[in-house]
Each structure stands twice: as C-alpha cells, then as structure tokens.
Write a structure and sequence with these properties.
It contains five helices and no strands. It is mostly helical. The longest helix is centred in the first third of the chain and has 18 residues, at 35-52. The mean pLDDT is 83.
C-alpha cells in the first residue's frame, strides 16, 4: 500500500515562479495578474490561514481541495441554505461550518419546519399584523384635501 504524498503548499504554483515587478511597477492599474500570480497568492494565503485558524484534519483537506481548484481560502463559496450577500465577510470554513450546523439541526424536519428554522437562524421575522400608526395608502381612495 502506497503512502499518501505529503501536502506541500509550494506545489500549488510553478517552482520557477517569480512575480513580474517590472511590469507591475510600469502600470499598476492596468496590470493583469496571471494564473501563476493567483496560484502563488492563494498558496501563501492558505499557508497563513492554516496557521491562524484552528481546524480539523477533514476541514483542512476540504480547504486544500478548495484552494487547489483555484480559489482563495478567504473566498466565500456560497451557502447551500443561506444567502450570504451581506456586509459580513464569510470565508470557506465559516460557510462550511454554518452549513454543517444547519444540516445537522434540520435533519428529519419537513420543508415548512426547515423554512421556519432558517428564518429564525437568519433573524427573519414575519411581517407583524397591520397595527401601523400610519394611514392606509389605498390608490383607489379619494385623496386627502386640505382646505
């Protein structure tokens, strides 16, 4: 039985990679990053991220697969259950852990129970009954006239 190859973050970009500072300095606004530039940046970000964020070996394997597929570890993969387009930044592991928690909590629920759970999870409240102090704005009603 062959042993698994030990993961090396530096294998994610070409061994002879060198950033082209001359082209970048000449036109920083117009510089187009190459696939090698992006792969190098993502690999270095992965290395930092693994040092900063505690994670299980399974989560580490998923994260590495995410980065090997061309993504940044701090990139939001999109949730299976939630729309995470707000101002709060969610990275790969945040979304993975939220989805895992939701999947665990909603196991065995029917569709309406899942919907109620997700609304509560996101802080969504159904519209209150019409006890508003504001007048009804019915376009078919006669307009209010001041004499």
């Amino acid at each position: 039985m062959a042993k698994n190859k030990v993961f090396n973050v530096h294998d994610l970009y070409p061994a002879d990679y060198c950033f082209d500072y001359g082209s970048f300095d000449a036109d920083p606004e117009g510089y187009v990053f190459t696939q090698d530039d992006i792969a190098y940046f993502n690999a270095m970000e992965l290395e930092r991220y693994e040092q900063e964020v505690p994670m299980s070996s399974y989560e580490r394997r998923l994260l590495r697969q995410w980065v090997m597929s061309g993504h940044n570890p701090r990139e939001n993969p999109g949730s299976r259950y939630l729309c995470l387009s707000g101002s709060e930044p969610y990275d790969f592991l945040d979304v993975y852990r939220m989805d895992r928690e939701i999947r665990r909590d909603t196991k065995g629920m029917n569709k309406s129970e899942k919907e109620a759970y997700l609304k509560k999870y996101m802080g969504w409240e159904d519209a209150p009954e019409d006890n508003s102090p504001w007048p009804d704005c019915d376009p078919d009603r006669e307009p209010f006239v001041i004499n």
